[in-house]
Amino acid sequence: MTRTASIAALVLLAGCGGSSSPSAATPTHHTPGPLADTWAWDGGAWHQTANTGPAPRYSASLAYDAARGVYIMFGGQTARATSDETWSWDGKTWKALSPTHKPPPRRAAAMAYDPVHRVVVLYGGVVPDAAEGFDASDTWTWDGSDWTVAVEKSTDPGPREGPLMVTAGNRVLLFGGRYYNVKYYGDAWTWDGKTWSRVDRAPEPPGRASSALVWDPVNSSLLVFGGTGLNSTAGPGAQGALLGDFWSLAGSAWKQITAAGPPAQGFTNAIWDSGRKRAIVLLGMPCPQPSGDAWAWDGAAWSKTASGISPRWGAASAQNPDGSALIFGGSDEAGC
C-alpha cells in the first residue's frame, strides 16, 4: 500500500470518528480502521481502560514522562488528518494539552524520555505537505508544559519515517527508520541534549522501519525484532517488505539471534516484562490481517501467547520504569 492509498483508505473511514482537534472517540459501530482504545499492562496482563480520550489514530508517538509521572502522546494519523495534538495520561484519564509551541503534525515519529535532561525527546516521522508528506529530521523536547525545537534539521541521523526510540538506562537510543521506500537504516543513535551521535558499529542489521524495539535491562542490550525493509519491486511511496529477524545490540556490537519465533511482521510493539525478565513482542501486521498475538523471549527461546488485546497494527506504546505499560489505538484495517 502506498502512502496515498493508505490515506485514501482512511478517508473512507471518516464517519467512524477522527479529527485534527481533541475529541472523544471509539464509535459504537466500528468500521475497520483507526482505533481509540487504551490498554494498561500491570506487570502480568493487559486491561482495557478509559472510555474517552484522543480520536482514533495509528502511528502516534508515546512516551512515559518520568519527571512528571504521566504518559505523553503526540501526533498520529486519524481518519481525517495527521495530528499535532499533545495528550497526557495519568493512569486514569486522558487530558488534551495546549502548549504554546508544538511540532508540526506527523505520524511514525520516534519518542522516549531522556532521564539526564528530564525531557521527552521526539525525532523525525512523516510530516504532511501538498503531496504525500515528507520524512522529517527535526528534534523536539517536551518539558512538561511546552515543546522546544532542539534541532530544526539534522543530517545525522537524517530524515526518517518509522524510527523507534527507547529509554536505555540513563540515555535514549534511537534505532532504524527509512527514507521512503528508498533507503532503510539499521543503525543506533543517542542524544546528549544538543546533538545525536552514533553508538553502534558495522556489521549492523539490515535496514528497517516500524520494528519492535525494547531495552533489556538485565543484559544491558537493545533488542530489535522484525519491521519493514526495502521492497525493491515497488515505488518510493510503498510500504516495505516484512522482516522476521531478531537482533541484539550490546555496547556497540550487533548480534543476530536465531531462534524460531514470531512470523515476519511490521508496525508491532514490544515491552519488557520485568517480573519474568523477558521481552514481549505483541500485535502488528504479519499480512494480510493484523495480529493480536504476543510472543515472549526469555533469552533462550520464544513462546507464543495471546495478548488479550484485539488485533491491530501501528499502536502507540510506552513503558513506565516500574514495569507497567500503556498501549493506545492503532488500526485493525487489513491489507499490505
Protein model, in words:
This protein is mainly β. Helices cover 3% and strands 41% of the residues. A hairpin with a 4-residue loop joins β3 and β4.
CATH architecture: 6 Propeller
Distance between the termini: 6 Å
CATH class: Mainly Beta
Spell out the CATH superfamily.
Kelch-type beta propeller
- Give me the number of helical elements: 1
Helix content: under 10%
Q: From the alpha-carbon coordinates, what is the Rg to the nearest angstrom?
A: 18 Å
Structural domains: how many: 1
Give the uncertain stretches in residue-range form. 4-27
Question: What share of the residues does DSSP label as strand, in percent?
Answer: 35-45%
Question: CATH fold name, please?
Answer: Neuraminidase
Compile the SSE list and pairings.
Blueprint: H1 3-11, E1 34-41, E2 46-49, E3 61-65, E4 70-74, E5 86-89, E6 94-97, E7 110-114, E8 119-123, E9 126-127, E10 134-135, E11 139-142, E12 147-151, E13 164-168, E14 171-179, E15 183-191, E16 196-198, E17 212-216, E18 221-229, E19 241-250, E20 253-257, E21 269-273, E22 278-282, E23 293-297, E24 302-306, E25 316-319, E26 325-331
Antiparallel strand pairs: 1-2, 1-26, 3-4, 4-5, 5-6, 7-8, 8-11, 9-10, 11-12, 13-14, 14-15, 15-16, 17-18, 18-19, 19-20, 21-22, 22-23, 23-24, 25-26
Brief summary of the model shown:
This protein has 336 residues and is an all-beta fold. The protein is 3% helix and 41% strand. The chain contains one helix and 26 strands.
